[in-house]
Specification:
Blueprint (H helix, E strand, L loop, with lengths): L1 E6 L9 E8 L5 E4 H9 L4 H18 L6 E2 L9 E4 L7 E8 L3 E9 L9 H22 L3 E3 L6 E3 L2 E3 L5
Parallel strand pairs: 2-7
Antiparallel strand pairs: 1-2, 1-10, 2-3, 4-5, 5-6, 6-7, 8-9
């Protein structure tokens, strides 16, 4: 399986770019994204939180950039940039992402957090650990010059297809 980093234009703007991963299907086409799956899984029970996350993403892209205060940081291992975006700390829905400064974020998956530690929830643990793997793969691709940052650090350039060697 392969994944492709793609920019989400409806959230990206002058202050930050918002990316997600398209997932290769069985026919070898990239159609559904991790963010699409997150929305579809949570829109019925958490529609107001989804709308607030949409609003926050538009603010990040067009007004403020990816301010640290919008995220719960250190959701991965030190230095990997994995964090959780939510509309307010009292809400349950978490969207895991990788933050590259104020200029760029990569949206992954997530779900409702009803436990103290994400490791206590099978779904959240799976989503979080996948992003930890993805962060490591992107870093590896950057070191190998397969993926580069644009001059303004707001975009990825190069070979944006990531080959899957991830094991749950």
């Amino acid at each position: 399986m392969k994944y492709k980093l793609v920019k989400i234009s409806k959230f990206s703007g002058n202050e930050a770019s918002v990316y997600t991963l398209l997932i290769e299907n069985e026919q070898g086409k990239f159609e559904e994204s991790l963010f699409d799956i997150f929305i579809n899984e949570n829109k019925t029970l958490y529609l107001s939180e989804i709308k607030n996350i949409f609003s926050r993403l538009k603010t990040i892209g067009n007004d403020t950039g990816a301010r640290e205060s919008f995220f719960k940081t250190n959701e991965g291992v030190p230095g990997d940039g994995v964090c959780a975006l939510y509309d307010s700390p009292s809400k349950k829905l978490r969207l895991y992402c990788i933050r590259y400064g104020k200029e760029l974020i990569v949206l992954g998956g997530g779900g409702p957090k009803n436990v103290k530690a994400l490791q206590d929830d099978k779904k959240l643990k799976k989503e979080n650990y996948f992003l930890r793997w993805l962060s490591k793969k992107i870093t590896e691709c950057i070191r190998n010059n397969d993926i580069l940052f644009s001059n303004d650090f707001m975009d990825f350039e190069g070979d944006l297809i990531i080959k899957d060697d991830y094991e749950n």
